[in-house]
Write a structure and sequence with these properties.
- This is Claudin.
- The relative contact order is 0.17.
- A five-stranded antiparallel sheet has the order 4-3-2-1-5.
- It has a domain at 4-27 and 73-194: Butyryl-CoA Dehydrogenase, subunit A, domain 3, CATH 1.20.140.
- Helix 1 packs antiparallel against helix 2 (75-101), helix 1 runs antiparallel to helix 4 and helix 3 (111-148) runs antiparallel to helix 4 (162-194).
- It is α+β, with helices and mostly antiparallel strands.
- The protein is built from five helices and five strands, in the order αββββααβαα.
- The radius of gyration is 29 Å and the shape is elongated.
Length: 219
């Protein structure tokens, strides 16, 4: 029962990780730059994401521009696009597979099949967490290096946005969920190896007949 509740807790973490991963991939809040200038009325907030760049004015106007050209983008943005999409796909596969392999569901067949499905789902969550953690770290490193560069003007410097933090948290949730699923299946398999099922040997009827005295010669 404890293992089933632990798997359910890991499944909830994985759900939060999947939703956060998708939100971080689509949101344009990877880079944020607030340029107030000399007049607060003309304040501009620039946001850059993986797929679009948005600008918000203090007057209430909001405009976004899609990034159509892939080759014109920096390498870290191209890598972030690829790895974040892979993270979303793997986490979605992990949700489907662990739904079959969890102990609290009636899908997946026997215990061994459910354990294998649960372990495969945990591997998908771990890979999804790694694929989500790598681009956020790389993207944050680029932002910090540009921010500390003295040759770049202050108006062109950015700070990490909310999508970066969402990506970090989602990757952590997916990694924790994957480790819990894999460890729960590993403990069950290890217990089966240490304590194998006892085999009961019943004497055959022929041995029972030979154990007694033969009375056919005594009439």
């Amino acid at each position: 029962m404890a293992s089933a509740s632990l798997q359910f807790f890991a499944f909830i973490l994985a759900l939060f990780g999947v939703f956060g991963d998708i939100a971080a991939t689509l949101l344009p809040h990877w880079k944020v730059n607030a340029d107030v200038g000399s007049n607060i009325i003309t304040a501009i907030t620039q946001m850059q994401g993986l797929w679009m760049d948005c600008t918000w004015y203090s007057t209430g106007m909001f405009s976004c521009t899609l990034k159509y050209s892939i080759l014109s983008l920096p390498v870290y943005i191209q890598a972030a696009r690829t790895t974040m999409v892979l993270s979303c796909i793997l986490s979605a596969f992990g949700i489907c597979i662990t739904t079959v392999g969890m102990k609290c569901t009636r899908l997946g067949g026997d215990i061994d099949s459910k354990n294998n499905a649960c372990f495969a789902g945990g591997i998908c969550f771990i890979l999804a967490g790694i694929f989500g953690l790598v681009p956020t770290c790389w993207y944050t490193r680029e932002i910090i290096s540009n921010f500390l560069d003295q040759t770049i003007p202050e108006s062109s410097k950015h700070e990490p946005g909310g999508a970066v933090y969402t990506g970090f948290i989602s990757a952590g949730f997916l990694l924790i969920a994957g480790v819990i699923f894999c460890s729960s299946c590993f403990k069950r398999q290890q217990g089966a190896w240490i304590y194998p099922p006892k085999q009961h040997h019943f004497p055959s009827t022929e041995q029972e007949s030979n154990a007694g005295y033969s009375l056919k010669d005594y009439v």
